[in-house]
Amino acid sequence: MPVALDGERVDRVVALLADVSRNRAGIAIAAGSVRLDGAVVTQRSRKVRADEELVVDGLEREAVHVPEGDATVVVSVLYDDDDVIVVDKPSGLVVHPGAGNMEGTLVNGLLARYPEMAGVGSAVRPGIVHRLDLGTSGALAVARTQVAYDSLVGQLAERTVGRRYLALVWGRPEAPTGVVDAPIGRSTKDRTRMAVIGSGRPARTHYDVEETRVEPVTSLLRCRLETGRTHQIRVHLSAIGHPLVGDRAYGGEREGLPEGPPLDRPFLHAAHLAFDHPATGERMAFDAPLPADLLGLLERLGPPEPNEADPEARD
Fold first, then answer.
1. Which of helix, strand or coil describes residue 263?
2. Which amino acids are annotated catalytic?
3. Is 253 left (phi over 0), alpha (psi -120 to 50) or beta?
4. Among 84, 104, 130, 158, which is least packed by CB within 10 angstroms?
């Protein structure tokens, strides 16, 4: 059992290791085909330990769509070497193939440039160790080798990967810095969305107010993820009454923005990424500049209020 999977749900582990869907993994568990240290697993939510032996009987892999390289997909590379790639993903680009998006993804573009990535980590999602939402731009790490993949997945599980996001929200948070500590799970009202629910997985987001503008009142936050749940920043900031500007799914579509090109996605950008290099152990850090659509909106909103505590401090 890979150490990085310690503490994960057994259905997710089976799906990852057998390269099948979570649904197929759940069916195998219900059929009594999954054992941990010789004991039949009866609950798909059961957490695994890295020192346990996992055995899955009679589970054939599903027919999968193996992505091919596509040189027409433009990939902006911030850094690459023999082990890792760091890309600056634009908004609107799907990270990997999936239902409804089998072609034209970031993975297709990367495979055209780095064909040796094929099969690293997953046949369907080669090299992908973490993701950004369709509407989120910014820095994303990709593994070129299996050793690098295992290292980066382990660092994510141990929460040693540094991830900083810039988010423009409606309103002004009461405190200049704060932490949102609230579990996130699938919404019971709309299964396509996430929500803060008691039965969800633990989630923790730190934020600092960088700037505030007054017409309309919006605040630019720098957010740090301690966990990596789906839509985490969007859900957490909406839950405290400050949804992201442009976020239709979580209450951020409001009137009052200055005239200009409409923002057709949430104002969320992965501005900073840091991790230990899988081969050398060196701490590496990368910054992705704000793209034109987000920068343009800030300019149209006008200058921010002076920061009285430290008027020259702008990270």
1. coil
2. 133
3. beta
4. 158
